[in-house]
Amino acid sequence: MRPSFELDGRVALVTGGSSGLGRAMAEALAAAGARVVVAARRREALEASVAAIEAEGGQAAALVADLADPAALEDVAQRAAEPFGPVTILVNAAGVNLRQPIEEVDLASWQLTLQLHLGTPFFLSRALVPGMREAGYGRIINLASLQSRRAFPDSAPYGAGKGGIVQLTRAMAEAWSRHGINANAIAPGFFPTELTAPVFEDPASAEALAARTAVGRNGTLADIAGPTVFLASPAAGYVTGQTLYVDGGFTAK
């Protein structure tokens, strides 16, 4: 039996799809046949993502939204269905890492970080689940992190959110998988994105991190494509509640 990785006819919503891993994941889903809605705050960056997808023959639309606003998420879920129809694939890639020393973390920073990494994925997923259930197909892909397992300096709120998303993914799977809605997480290693710019701006730090992987290099945005398509596809029908570390073996050493 040949597994199906085709996403033709599926509609995907990718939060944080304006840059970095979110954009790379959106491009991967579009290349596999999905029609993709990318959501973030920056219109110009979103339009660039849409243009890149369309240049490769894919279909995409931009949705400008403040994903950190809890009151906006029901509206985001409704608007996401307007360009192509009901969403059956959700990628929760929006995030922020303010990199504050733990003594300097204020309440606003804490609440923003935890909202984007836990509150937004939970309430946006829940708003989209009825449509997925009606379709008999749903795939939720959350973004975990190396910090889901270990601590890095100046990232206490980020690490707390990324630790929590692993358990939230399990809870989503327990609640919704019986309806054909699978929930999994991808935990990336070090990839060159806006969030990791401080690391990659220092060649010595980047090289040291690469040396700690099993494969001997840091990630490239192309490395996220295969895992994304797999977890979004029918081929992953018996995979749910899991966190896949796409880290070149960083956590294996």
From TrEMBL:
Location of the Ketoreductase domain: 10-189
- Xref: Pfam families: adh_short_C2
**What is this protein's record name?**
Gluconate 5-dehydrogenase
Per the UniProt record, the source organism is Halomonas beimenensis
Name the SUPFAM superfamilies for this protein. Answer: NAD(P)-binding Rossmann-fold domains
What family is reported?
Answer: Belongs to the short-chain dehydrogenases/reductases (SDR) family.
- UniProt GO molecular function: oxidoreductase activity, acting on the CH-OH group of donors, NAD or NADP as acceptor
Q: Where is coiled-coil annotated?
A: none
Q: Per UniProt, which keywords does this protein have?
A: Oxidoreductase
Matching PANTHER family: 3-OXOACYL-[ACYL-CARRIER-PROTEIN] REDUCTASE (PTHR42760:SF133), SHORT-CHAIN DEHYDROGENASES/REDUCTASES FAMILY MEMBER (PTHR42760)
